[in-house]
Write a structure and sequence with these properties.
The chain has 513 residues and is an alpha+beta fold. The chain contains 20 helices and twelve strands. A six-stranded antiparallel beta sheet has the order 5-4-3-10-12-11. It starts with a helix and ends in a 9-residue tail after the last helix. Belongs to the IPK1 type 2 family.
Length: 513
Amino acid sequence: MLPLMGKEYVRVGKVISVPEVFIASMNEICWGLRPDHRLQKEIDESCLWGVVMPDFCFLPAGGIPSLERGKETNHSTFSVELKPKCGFLPSSKYIDPSRVTKFTTCQYCMLQKSKVKEGKYKRESNYCPLDLFSRDRGRVMYAFECLVSNPQNNLRVFCDGVTIFTDEIVQGCIQEESVCCAEWCLETALQKANFLMDLTTADTLGVNSTKECHDLTNCVTTEIKDCVTTRIKDFVTTKGSKMEDSETKEKGQHTLTADEKEGENITTHVHECGNVGPSSRKFLEILLKIFIHDSSRSQPKPSNMINSPNTSMCRRSKFSESEFNIQSSPDHRLFGNGGVLQNLLSVQKLDDLDVEGIYPLYKRVLNYLQSNPGLRESLGVDGPFTVPLWQRVASSLHSNILDTISSEPSSTDLNSNLNDRQNLNDALLKICQFAVASTAKDCSVMVSFQRASKKEASLPAIEITCGDFYHYNIDLVDLDPKEFDRVLKYYNDSRKTVELFGLSDTCTVFYYR
């Protein structure tokens, strides 16, 4: 992924050996912090190797020279984990006519029906990945607000490394009746973290948030577990958040008053259920500005030279029905042609055949490899990722490669003679590209940012007020390679998703060839 996405967004970790007690302790700590639907997951205690990675909830430890010289900051570091999912509609001619809804409705939106039906989530999300990847300011901001309204597994917010907003936190607070909706949950969390204060006055938290990654040995103590649990509760427990009177209840309006500090009331805000509050809106505006700045900062891939926003719209997106708009401002710029989102979208589009085109090709290749023992290993199908096959995959976004392989193969290409080594290599390349694209569709984007009064050259920064800046950093996580043989699962999942969506969708699908 590093050659495809660039070193700006992909960090290479350091492999280390770890003792058995470390793995066992981590399993115990993680079990208590996992959501219910992931309690069956655990770390393999037989594996005594680990990878040391930076804590992406913070800015890079060496990113701000003034901090390296021992000058601490009282400004908190906020970070956001976004799981964008697939940002385009397929156009492959190999999609079966009975599943043409894939041309108009994205995979994420189709899955919402089954996720609610299975009880994984209580209601469908209005978030659509195509809005996030659109390079249109209004649609991107709309996508952010949809994620806040129903974060599911696609949005998490952290303050100084502590989770303050997730779907699990929202549901817990709603069940306890400490908040009425997800929007209020985020607003409360940001106010308790003094986010809006951080923009207007000297910060009072007194937390040095740009710190080194936690020491490995300290990560496995009971104190860490207790500390995390306590701080999460502290961030999301709202004081005095009951409704003022029965009339306010009926209107869905609640007075949100932040804690008093030194006898001075920080913020009073009448919250309308289902609408983001002032702290949340400012938070999302900063996030939007970071993505806009990033899109012009990093150079686009050769295949990604786009001069206008992506107008492709998923049929399930409600953006066109909404009255959503962003107030124009002199410092609001248009999206550039590069950045993490466009690079990620380019890698996702390496899946140009759709799983319905890849699956029959995969079956033929798999049968051929099974009839030729040792060939799969010698070609490096399952790694190492330094062999020529994977080097070709890593070069897939270069213009000279795209000229020859990015166009959709004809049906005769998919049925070519695999005894010809070039045909076999090309077929393997398409399947491996599909695997890499699948990773890009399922990874997360980590955005960390911190206020500063002085702009440092070592980190990108956006200006929020005259003389005030936010340094930021963007990283991609969850980049584990998808297995070559996972094609079968993706194929079955795709068919099931379309089938269930078709049963519940009462709209007529209009399709034109």
